[in-house]
Write a structure and sequence with these properties.
The complex is a heterodimer of chains A (115) and B (111). Chain A is mainly beta. Helices cover 0% and strands 50% of the residues of chain A. In chain A, the strands form 2 sheets. In chain A, strands 2, 4, 5, 6, 9, 10 and 11 form a 7-stranded mixed sheet that branches. In chain A, strands 1-3-8-7 form a 4-stranded antiparallel sheet, with no helix packed on it. Chain B is an all-beta fold and 111 residues long. Classes of the chains: A mainly beta (115), B mainly beta (111). Chain A binds chain B through residues 31, 33, 35, 40-45, 48, 50, 56, 58-59, 90, 96, 98-109, and chain B through 1, 31-32, 34, 42-46, 49, 51, 88, 90, 92, 96-104.
Chain lengths: 115, 111
């Protein structure tokens, strides 16, 4: 089954404790991305990657890191989480054509609470 | 900052009616336009993609794109209570490889 898998689905942690949210896709997609969703603010893109070793900032990258060492994986790293990073996070992937950006497939989401 | 704007709703329609959802965007050169449906607490799921001016139909759904007016809409015919959800409009940012989402319109279909 074609899917984007995020782990963990839920996490409660404390300020300053480094954490990683993993994301894996089995569709051989070049493009992967992380979003956060907050009430009233919609989905905002944190980072994206067009292919292995190619990443770029989205609209809200502060406080986050990413890496793309393999095509299927795109982990999101919070090195020193703060309460304002409490949010619902989604990983997404798509085929990548420069002339016609493709629709994204979303993972089930990770609800992150930072105390 | 490029933007995608949607009326937050809720938009209430009776069962069997046509629901009309609208979206405007600021990037004149965007090439790709998407409608997603999101149930509460769930992930967005793609309903339609549209890339050229005009209408595109898929079952009960029709997407309409007017690039001159920077406007994209979604019509849902024969609305069902199961269509009650938030509908997200998204476009690509032509100057980067980013996607920009609207904040969504909440649709309520009344049985």
């Amino acid at each position: 089954e074609a899917q984007v898998t995020q782990n963990p689905r839920y996490l409660i942690t404390v300020t300053g404790k480094k954490l990683t949210v993993t994301c894996s896709q089995n569709m051989n997609h070049e493009y992967m991305s992380w979003y956060r969703q907050d009430p009233g603010l919609g989905l905002r893109q944190i980072y994206y990657s067009m292919n292995v070793e190619v990443t770029d900032k989205g609209d809200v990258p502060e406080g986050y890191k990413v890496s793309r060492k393999e095509k299927r994986n795109f982990p999101l790293i919070l090195e020193s989480p703060s309460p304002n990073q409490t949010s619902l996070y989604f990983c997404a992937s798509s085929l990548f054509f420069t002339g016609a950006p493709q629709p994204q497939h979303f993972g089930d989401g990770t609800r992150l609470s930072i105390l | 900052q490029k933007e995608v704007e949607q009326n937050s709703g809720p938009l209430s329609v009776p069962e069997g009616a046509i629901a009309s959802l609208n979206c405007t965007y600021s990037d004149r050169v965007s090439q790709s336009f998407f409608w997603y449906r999101q149930y509460s607490g769930k992930s967005p799921e793609l309903i339609m993609s549209i890339y050229s001016n005009g209408d595109k139909e898929d079952g009960r759904f029709t997407a309409q794109l007017n690039k001159a007016s920077q406007y994209v809409s979604l019509l849902i015919r024969d609305s069902q209570p199961s269509d009650s959800a938030t509908y997200l409009c998204a476009v690509n940012d032509s100057g980067t490889y980013k996607y920009i989402f609207g904040t969504g319109t909440r649709l309520k279909v009344l049985a």
